[in-house]
Design the sequence.
């Protein structure tokens, strides 16, 4: 007898149970639900008869082969739909009756862990365990979530005791049992509802029926459209002609053409949207995940407005309330929430203004996305992600599944016997939250488990602890690699453990040499490079050809510098394209200054390896930083978000997002995100001082020099930063402090020079020389500035450095006109020096300071406008619809 465990007692879980029972009459089916009351979830657990389904009753049958089943059930119980739309509470009762007829065992418990296998083992919250031959995950969305930006805005209020301090004035989950009833019992005169989709509309109608005036707030200030019976779906010739591998732009073009075709043939726009419904999963899967993320950012709200429509009676009630003044709709993003006397005050921002809105209460009706934050609120999903049994979908929504709905683990393999249905499938199929899609999934899963479960080979994902962990040099090296690729501290310690356990570990030795070259303070200094390389080469006697190629490519970079290192690394990657370390060293990112600064198209080269490294978070983070170097801010944000969803501590992704925030002038949001990240997921970062530097730049941009000064003293001044990071981060900020009129006591540059003297006085690259000039200018040492000589610098680089040096000297000697001439002349050559736009911008700031000393603020503004192209709208994470 087959044993099936279904996790989740909402509509998806109930439909899975009844379809499994029909397909396997003898199976032992257990439905596990924490409430013990299946069918009373968020969608159908309401007791308000005015809450209607948003799909006509004739489409809501539990059985695809009996489409009139639900309508007959309504007739038998004398429940009359309102213009074809039945009450939600009636549908909940319908589902519970189907479940009762299926003879399914109900287990009241919360599932907190799952180890797949034959059988799978589920751990329950009370400590018990349950075995099953197959597991169906139908958990629905975790309750009580909200978008990240809203979570930040509500954090101070929610940190208070919810029962006493907020006194019911703040409702973050309107579908929590009794939440709306408790709010209505307070008889609020006015309520602010965040979210203007169908959930927001239901909440508003419930509260207005009890006398409250309601304001619906959302980013776009739009309502769902009205449902209208329009006949058969339209034809979509242009969409149907699209290839299986399509872009979002191609889909938009085809849809535009099909809307025009529909108008020419007398079809309503609703018939076009309805025709898309059975095609949505194919179209979604045909797009790359980067285009999927673009859709979520750029098109989601318009799709939701058109796709999820209000029943006619609901639309009539809404517009009647608007005309009567009881309901208003406003556009804006909630930036702050505070309690004020007997009510709540929101700060709402738009692109052109900030406003305050007060009410007796506030309700969050946005719903939660299936992102990492939402999943981590569920003990089960947190366990599955942490153990690698599940992996996030790279589009940022849901988890990865194979074409049958089986989980895909962190290694990319299918997890046998664990299948999903319902909203968790959004990343793979997008339209998967309505009953027509869910019942089809339930029927397919019932068939699949009846025929397929015992035929699949059982393979436990490698991240599930099923036996002794690997130990010794290999485990230490793997840990070092993990930390190195994520740009986390401790890589050198792990590699040192590897060579201590196995002195002949060639790759660990060359990794230590590589780190010592880039960070002498972390791996024994320059003298260690020669020793580690000698030991690595000696160990190659037992190594493979790939080991030899790897060691020699890295060694060439360590010994001969970037130009020779670039050639060696490229030659090696042609032979061994999956060598992550070689690509990391080649790319000029935060992890390494980058051999690739000798490669003009380094970031285009990095993109060539997408087919090799795919969705590995370290590679996504590296690509994200590359997009910032190319000025592609939205692309960079998408890639960074994807990497941080998979690995919240990923250094290159966080670095890219820091640049995105700065370059798009999102200084407030950027500072808040960065400060929280440094204190949380970023605390193990190898380059924490550099992230503190980014935070200080946000503070300076916002005019808070005092905060930047405090941050410098606490996190950047030596010994907080060392060696090259001290010179580059602390040194450049020490010079910027001298340009800022409100920085009362600029940092002492001599402390920076004492920490990084060899780098400052004898720089080996133009990039290091550039920062040496800034520190020496802060120290007012013109002789040392003029003595800077970079071996191997091109004529263009040497000329640019000379112009910068003379400009800095002129400014420190009180000659702003000469300083301005030198610095303006240096601007075209700045890209040849290396470094990011943010790092190079200090020269622009110095030129602006010279202009202001000359009394030319208008000229300064024009220079700034020309040099910094318009960045476009701010990029924020977790925006609210």
Sequence:
């Amino acid at each position: 007898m087959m044993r099936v465990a279904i996790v989740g007692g909402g509509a998806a879980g109930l439909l899975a149970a009844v379809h499994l029972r029909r397909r396997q009459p003898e199976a032992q089916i257990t439905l596990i639900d924490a409430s013990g009351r299946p069918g009373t979830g968020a969608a159908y657990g309401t007791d308000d008869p005015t809450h209607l389904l948003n799909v006509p009753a004739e489409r809501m049958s539990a059985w695809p082969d009996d489409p009139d089943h639900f309508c007959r059930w309504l007739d038998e119980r004398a429940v009359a739909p309102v213009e074809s739309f039945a009450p939600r509470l009636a549908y909940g009762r319908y589902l519970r009756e189907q479940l009762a007829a299926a003879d399914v065992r109900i287990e009241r418990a919360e599932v907190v862990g799952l180890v797949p296998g034959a059988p799978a083992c589920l751990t329950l919250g009370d400590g018990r365990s349950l075995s099953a031959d197959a597991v169906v995950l139908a958990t629905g969305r975790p309750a009580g979530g909200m978008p990240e930006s809203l979570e930040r805005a509500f954090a101070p209020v929610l940190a208070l005791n919810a029962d006493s301090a907020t006194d019911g004035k703040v409702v973050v989950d309107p579908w929590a049992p009794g939440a709306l009833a408790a709010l209505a019992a307070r008889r609020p005169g006015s309520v602010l509802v965040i979210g203007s989709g169908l959930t927001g509309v239901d909440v508003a109608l419930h509260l207005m029926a009890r006398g409250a005036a309601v304001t619906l707030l959302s980013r776009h200030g739009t309502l769902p459209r009205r449902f209208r019976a329009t006949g058969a779906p339209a034809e979509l010739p242009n969409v149907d002609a699209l290839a299986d591998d399509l872009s979002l732009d191609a889909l938009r073009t085809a849809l535009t053409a099909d809307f025009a075709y529909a108008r020419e043939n007398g079809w309503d726009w609703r018939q076009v949207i309805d025709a898309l419904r059975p095609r949505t999963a194919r179209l979604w899967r045909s797009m790359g995940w980067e285009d999927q993320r673009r859709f979520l950012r750029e098109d989601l709200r318009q799709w939701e407005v058109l796709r999820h429509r209000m029943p006619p009676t609901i639309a009539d009630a809404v517009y009647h309330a608007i005309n009567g003044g009881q309901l208003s709709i406003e556009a804006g993003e909630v930036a702050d929430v505070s309690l004020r006397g007997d009510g709540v005050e929101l700060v709402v921002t738009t692109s052109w203004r900030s406003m305050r809105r007060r009410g007796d209460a506030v309700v969050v009706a946005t719903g939660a996305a299936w992102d990492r934050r939402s999943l981590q609120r569920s003990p089960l999903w947190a366990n599955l992600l942490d153990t690698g049994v599940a992996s996030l979908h790279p589009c940022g929504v849901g988890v990865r599944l194979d074409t049958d709905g089986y989980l895909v683990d962190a290694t990319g393999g299918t997890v046998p016997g664990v299948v999903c249905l319902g909203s968790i499938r959004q990343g793979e199929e997008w339209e998967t939250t309505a009953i027509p899609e869910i019942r089809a999934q339930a029927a397919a899963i019932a068939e699949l488990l009846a025929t397929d479960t015992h035929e699949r080979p059982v393979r436990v994902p490698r991240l599930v602890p099923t036996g002794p962990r690997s130990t010794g040099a290999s485990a230490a090296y793997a840990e070092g690699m993990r930390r190195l690729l994520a740009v986390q501290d401790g890589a050198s310690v792990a590699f040192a453990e590897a060579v201590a356990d196995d002195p002949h570990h060639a790759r660990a030795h060359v990794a230590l040499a590589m780190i010592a070259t880039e960070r002498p303070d972390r791996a024994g200094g320059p003298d260690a490079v020669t020793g580690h390389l000698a030991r690595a080469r000696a160990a190659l006697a037992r190594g493979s050809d790939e080991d030899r190629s790897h060691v020699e490519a890295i060694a060439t970079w360590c010994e001969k510098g970037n130009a020779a290192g670039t050639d060696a690394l490229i030659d090696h990657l042609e032979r061994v394209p999956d060598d992550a370390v070689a690509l990391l060293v080649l790319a000029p990112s935060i992890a390494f200054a980058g051999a690739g600064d000798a490669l003009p198209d380094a970031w285009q080269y990095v993109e060539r390896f997408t087919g090799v490294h795919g969705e590995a978070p370290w590679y996504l983070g590296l690509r994200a930083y590359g997009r910032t170097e190319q000025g592609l801010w939205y692309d960079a944000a998408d890639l960074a978000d994807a990497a941080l969803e998979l690995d919240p501590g990923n250094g290159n992704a966080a670095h890219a997002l820091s640049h995105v925030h700065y370059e798009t002038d999102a200084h407030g949001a950027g500072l808040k995100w960065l400060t929280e990240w440094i204190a949380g997921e970023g605390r193990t970062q190898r380059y924490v001082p550099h992230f503190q530097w980014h935070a200080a730049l946000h503070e300076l941009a916002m005019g808070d020099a005092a905060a930047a000064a405090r941050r410098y003293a606490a996190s950047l001044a030596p010994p907080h930063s060392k060696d090259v990071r001290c010179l580059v981060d602390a040194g450049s900020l020490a010079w910027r402090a001298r340009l800022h009129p409100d920085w009362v006591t600029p940092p002492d540059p001599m402390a920076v020079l004492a920490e990084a003297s060899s780098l400052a006085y004898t720089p080996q690259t133009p990039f290091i020389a550039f920062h040496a000039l800034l520190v020496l200018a802060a120290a007012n040492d013109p002789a040392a500035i003029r003595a800077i000589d970079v071996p191997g610098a091109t004529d263009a680089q040497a000329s640019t450095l000379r112009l910068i040096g003379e400009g800095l000297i002129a400014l420190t000697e009180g000659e702003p006109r000469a300083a301005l001439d030198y610095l303006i002349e240096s601007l075209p050559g700045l890209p040849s020096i290396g470094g990011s736009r943010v790092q190079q911008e200090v020269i622009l700031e110095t030129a602006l300071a010279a202009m202001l000393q000359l009394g030319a603020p208008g000229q300064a503004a024009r220079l700034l406008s020309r040099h910094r192209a318009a960045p476009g709208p701010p990029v924020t994470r977790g925006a609210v619809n």
The chain is about 50% helix and 10% strand. Residues 148-225+309-364 form a domain with the FAD/NAD(P)-binding domain fold (CATH 3.50.50.60).
